[in-house]
Amino acid sequence: MNTKHQKISVAVDVLLFTITDDKLQIVLTKRSAEPFRDMYCLPGVSLRENETPEEAAERSLKERTGLNDIYLEQLYTFGDVDRDPRSRTISIAYYALTDPEKLLSSKLTEPAILVPADKISNGRIKLAFDHKKIVEYGRMRLRGKVSYSDIAFEFVPEDFTLPQLQKVYEILLGEELYKANFRKMISPRVEETGEMLTGMAHRPSRLYRKKSRQD
Predict the structure, then answer these.
(1) What's the CA gap between 88 and 97, in Å, rounded?
(2) Interatomic CA distance for residues 200 and 211, integer angstroms
């Protein structure tokens, strides 16, 4: 008996997070063709036969931002039957994290833009396909993971102040933290650099870095 095999396409979409202006921000790009022409979506590529999903995610990042060697982790596989009106398409989604200095020093490839994640969550910016669902899943992953991992350090420079790091935690968790409690919690994971951050409106602040795992 002959069995007709359905052709299934595989997309790799990347959710790139950074923090600027005290807000969680996401890189989006505008579609130039149907379906969903002129709507924003996550940067993505079709998986090639000769590459792994992670290599495809790295390629997508490189093409849109010029960035490489940043935090990248597989998020989830999205496979609703009707997620793409053109054909049966499965999306392997990744999320990437970077500090704003790296992203702003790179060159976003047109028509990529940086937008606050809240504007997607509240519907002010509508996304193509099921990409809002991917964004919400990614935000949930960040919120859950920040309390037991070092992902918050991906959003600050190598040398940072404790207020900078605390603000990242607050943005990812969606709540304010008491200064004393935060510093007690974070102290085993950071060390002083011996340098001070100067040239700001406030008094100089001590600079810290993340302790190496060997300590």
Answers:
(1) 29
(2) 25
* 70 Cβ neighbours under 8 A, 6+ residues apart: 61, 96, 97, 98, 102, 154
The one-digit pLDDT tens for each residue of the chain (215 residues) are 455 667 899 999 999 999 999 999 999 999 999 999 999 999 999 999 999 999 999 999 999 888 988 999 999 999 999 999 999 999 999 999 999 998 888 877 778 899 999 999 999 999 999 999 999 999 999 999 998 999 999 999 999 999 999 999 999 999 999 999 999 999 999 999 999 887 665 678 899 999 986 54
Cβ neighbour number for residue 189 with a 10 Å cutoff: 14
Cβ atoms within 10 Å of 44's Cβ, excluding its own: 23
Stated length of the chain: 215
Interior CA angle at 111 toward 134 and 90, to 5°?
A: 30
Identify which of 174, 147, 171, 158 has the alpha carbon closest to the alpha carbon of residue 207. Answer: 158
